[in-house]
Amino acid sequence: MNMTLGRRTFLRAAGLTAVGAVAAACTAKPGPSVPQTSPTTRASVPPSTSSKPSGPPDWNALRGKLSGDLVLPSDGGFATAKRAFNPLFDGHNPAAVAKCAKPEDVQACVEAAGGRVPLAARSGGHSYAGYSAPDGGLVIDVGGMAGVDVQGDQVVIGAGAKLGDVYSELAKAGRCLPAGSCPTVGIAGLALGGGIGVLTRKYGLTCDRLQSAQIVTPDGKLRTVSAQADDDLFWALRGGGGGNFGVVTSFTFTTVEAPTITVFSLKFPSGSASDVVDAWQRWLPSAPPELWSNCVVSGGPSGACRVGGAFVGSSAGLTSALNGFSVTPSSRTMKTLGYGAAMNYFSGSSERQTFVASSRIITDPVDGGKIADLASGHKGMDLLIDGLGGTVSEIAPTATAFPHRKALASIQVYAPATASSQDTARKSVSTVVAGLADAGARGGYVNYIDPDLPDWKSAYYGDNAARLGQVAKKYDPNGVFKFAQSA
């Protein structure tokens, strides 16, 4: 595959889309091993107090405690160190970037800067709102904790691991973890927001595979949380969004045996988007859970529409499932691959991309004509509809913080932008998002976080919002990790 292609260009051409917090596959060397700790430990730092500290952080003192680097604006390389994935946020100016290689580094950051300046964890840096690079704040870069340690049917993954590395190591061990499609997305952001992916309908969300997580909470403690320890925090970490309750340093997930996967792409004539979207929404809920699919509607007058996806099994099984789709494509391709190769198939370029995006959730089918009409007035925009259902729907909406268990699909509104066109792009995205809400798609996916979404808290969390707020108040009463759209 030509890795110089833009990721969205590749996905549009293949009839596929980004999923999860955006995530995927590639081959890379594993990072340092993931440390194992007791359920609650502390670094050799003084205990935190309930009163808010005063004065700026002592950056020199913090630098002396870190095993990695502390990069300040006056240091060479700061412009690179502070960067998020989206170049639109290059103008953000954090006060410092801490390169953390172990949990004790994160603890030192929280003790030194918590309550003094904004704190934000950064794994892959894919926050759609640029929240992982706060102006005047401390970026806690967990990229140095990137180990992927397969242990039988479990895998321990450092919070800084990128999905490309995760897939590579799992494939070597013959194991599988359901996740997304972009190789540079961090496992932390993906899992904490839920984790929609190409194997979601068969194996569930990424967060559904979480067994435990190590997290540094605002009091400076390193906790190992699970269903048996700090179960309320464990509940919140499964879909409550990244950065809300502390800094996760590692995750332990259950895995499944790596399956054979048949990928496919269907293309349809111009002007067929309305019929294709309607047919797709009727077809997917009745399809077997082994089949995951998406539907991509491109903006502009042509009304181009594509359907793609993955089937856990053989081409014969996929062919049978596709027989239920009522609109005949102009072309159809399919290919049977091993797990690692299939994840690479869904991966595009790892190059940085400039864009504006938001989302809605489809619970009941939305009129395909309305979706096509909304897209038609916005050339260059894509409406990327990712299927849910299957195994995702077997879990109650209140069992984890991810509330959209009964949804049919998420729909991402994605518009390329430049520094000069971003205001226009944001207005276009907001217009389409509002139109989708009027058409009945009213929820939202927190991993496509949007500062302009007017009803964001109810959209992202639904009836779980109040409980998330209680968990945040319990573990972060002083708002150490508070930001514009925190729980």
From TrEMBL:
Annotated Polar residues bias: 34-43
Signal sequence region: 1-23
Names of required cofactors: FAD
Signal in keyword set: yes
UniProt keywords, alphabetically: FAD, Flavoprotein, Oxidoreductase, Signal
Segments of this protein annotated with the region Disordered: 28-59
Similarity comment: family membership: Belongs to the oxygen-dependent FAD-linked oxidoreductase family.
Low complexity: compositionally biased ranges: 44-53
Keyword Oxidoreductase: yes
InterPro entries xref list: BBE, FAD-bd_PCMH, FAD-bd_PCMH-like_sf, FAD-bd_PCMH_sub1, FAD-bd_PCMH_sub2, FAD-linked_Oxidoreductase, Oxid_FAD_bind_N, TAT_signal
A molecular function (GO) term: oxidoreductase activity
UniProt domain FAD-binding PCMH-type: residue ranges: 89-258
Name of the protein: FAD-binding oxidoreductase
Species annotation: Amycolatopsis dendrobii
